[in-house]
Write a structure and sequence with these properties.
- The chain folds into two domains: 196 residues, Ribosomal Protein S5, domain 2; 170 residues, GHMP kinase, C-terminal domain (Alpha-Beta Plaits), CATH 3.30.70.890.
- The chain is of the alpha+beta class and 381 residues long.
- The protein is built from eleven helices and 13 strands.
- Helix 8 packs antiparallel against helix 9.
- Strand 7 and strand 8 form a beta hairpin.
- The strands form three sheets. Strands 5-4-6-3-1-13 form a six-stranded mixed β-sheet, with helices on both faces.
- Helix content is 43%, strand content 22%.
- It binds alpha-D-galactopyranose.
- The site of alpha-D-galactopyranose (GLA) has 11 residues, from helix 5.
Length: 381
């Protein structure tokens, strides 16, 4: 828990609205493996982290609602009885979207005030957006006694992103942020929403994130395009999703789709297999097998699914050259954000210094290193 962010959010709320707020922490997430599989009803292996969004919320005494984004030093006013997405598509849409989706369930939301801040950067692929959405739905649920279950809440958060932000995301981020467990990763089946819990630790190794500090602008549109390709291919094959498609099924329609689409669907099928193999590798403590699956996952994301970028590839290729790194890959939607690296603890210092220098030299810009601890999910603090 980041006490100073928590206290700042609480204090600012008091300064603005002169009343004690309810405080919520909602974590960001990492994903060990299983990328772009969630919206294909496949497997993912995420964990909540000890960095995220801190939200202060309380009912308003006036006929308007005020939102304050401390990190951006921005404020926004609205009334809960007339909500629509902002065309500027800023941070407001994540919050407004959640309110609108709760209202669609027939619940009444009176005006409220909200202040938030965080210790994960936006655009780093750590799901600050899901963390924000979850904090809002969780806070409103508690404040107004809406009786929503955690499962209902994550779908509200996901729909907010679909309908107000315009990203047709899967359920991984919202799930991981809501259901996270301290020191554990969750092997989630996105079709059944059943998860098995694993202690994501290899003795003598650790997971470290390296942020490229870039987010290329085509990220959101490319995301929706990939999702559409996957859905079209499952439709062509009369299957509910790519989760149920095998390599040989794909070959039967090879002449009906482009090579690019074929490779993208093949990537998803292979990534699902890799995720299951990685869970096994973790169970039997086979660190090198686990690491290799991370490298293969990156290769697929970069060369088949085409969602990597120069900066991410540079970090992974250079990590792969260093014997201290057992596995590495881009993490999240792609086109920027972080890589996740499985590193031998005794050699991590030298590797991290080296990669930071190499990155700065290549891109005339710094990358950032994050050491994260696995944490519990969205909670009142
Ligand atoms: C983003 C989305 C997730 C998931 C990942 C890729 O983080 O929000 O639903 O699809 O990309 O695995």
């Amino acid at each position: 828990m980041n006490q100073s962010v928590k206290e700042q959010v609480q204090q600012e709320f008091l300064n603005y609205f002169k009343i004690e707020p309810l405080l919520i922490f909602s974590p960001g997430r990492i994903n060990l493996i299983g990328e772009h599989t969630d919206y294909n009803e496949g497997y993912v292996f995420p964990a909540a982290i000890d960095k995220g969004i801190y939200t202060a919320i309380q009912q308003s005494k006036t006929d308007k609602s005020t939102l304050v984004a401390l990190d951006k030093n921005e404020q926004y006013e609205f009334t809960t009885n007339s909500i629509s997405p902002l065309t500027t598509n800023g941070w407001q849409n994540y919050i407004l979207g959640v309110v609108s989706e709760i209202q669609k369930k027939g619940k009444t939301i009176p005006n409220f005030n909200l202040v938030f801040s965080g210790d994960i950067p936006f655009g780093a692929g750590l799901s600050s957006s899901a963390a924000l959405e979850n904090s809002v739905v969780f806070g409103l649920n508690e404040l107004l006694q809406l009786q929503l279950t955690k499962h209902e809440m994550i779908f509200i958060s996901q729909k907010a992103e679909h309908n107000f932000v315009g990203v047709k995301c899967g359920i991984m981020d919202q799930y991981a942020s809501m259901f996270g467990q301290k020191n554990k990763a969750m092997h989630l089946d996105c079709k059944t929403l059943e998860a098995t819990i694993h202690s994501a630790a290899f003795e003598g190794y650790e997971f470290i994130l390296i942020n490229t500090n870039v987010k290329h602008s085509l990220a959101d549109s490319a995301y929706n395009k990939r999702r559409a390709v996957c859905e079209n291919i499952s439709k062509l094959l009369n299957k509910p999703s790519l989760r149920d498609v095998k390599d040989h099924d794909l070959n039967t329609i090879k002449d009906k789709i482009s090579l690019e689409e074929y490779e993208q669907a093949l990537y998803v099928i292979q990534e699902n297999k890799r995720t299951l193999q990685a869970v096994k590798a973790l169970e039997i403590d086979n660190v090198s097998n686990f690491g290799n699956l991370l490298f293969e996952s990156h290769k697929g994301l970069s060369e088949q699914y085409n969602v990597s970028c120069l900066e991410l590839d540079f970090l992974v290729i250079n990590a792969q050259k260093n014997p201290a790194v057992i596995g590495a890959r881009m993490m999240g939607g792609g086109f920027g954000g972080c890589t996740i690296n499985l590193i031998k603890t005794s050699k991590k210092g030298a590797f991290l210094t080296q990669i930071q220098q190499e990155y700065a030299q290549e891109f005339k810009q710094n990358c950032a290193i994050y050491e994260v601890n696995l944490s519990n999910g969205t909670q009142i603090i």
